[in-house]
Amino acid sequence: MLEVRKLYLVSGKAEGSTPLNAFDNALLDAGIGDVNLIKVSSIVPPDAEVVMEKPNLPRGALVPCVYAELTSQKRSERIAVALAVGLAEDGFGVVMESEGETAEEAVAKATKMVEEAFKVRRLHLKQILTISAEHQVKECGSVVAACVYWR
After folding, report:
1. Closest to 31 (Cα-Cα) out of 1, 5, 2, 67
2. Residue 97 designated active-site
3. β partners of residue 148
4. Exactly one of 36, 89, 101, 104 is catalytic; which is it?
5. Per CATH, is 6-150 categorized as 3.50.20.10?
């Protein structure tokens, strides 16, 4: 079992010559392009600390992560993604991902989903943290927002 001690939020946006290159470049812009992301469901363990400074992740490391991404090849299209992290009094939390045309729209959707997740669990929501990325596509663009878990 991987014990998560820290989590942090990052976002990135970029262009690329192909959709996969655009996504890879957005990951690099977010500072998580040189690790292997393992997509996990959206639960924050009670003892995890939210940190603002990105830990030094070894290149090639296997890193648990909740992320939202959107890639488009429609010129001039505005794309956006967001994550909202809701935390209870004991630090237990839920992460929700969303997308939209603007960062504000994506954040609003993700926040609403966190509120519903807490209501269903009958938990008191102490804090919501959000992160988003927005980009206007030139040729092939991508946006990513991630909640990275580390020990």
Report:
1. 67
2. yes
3. 8, 65
4. 36
5. yes
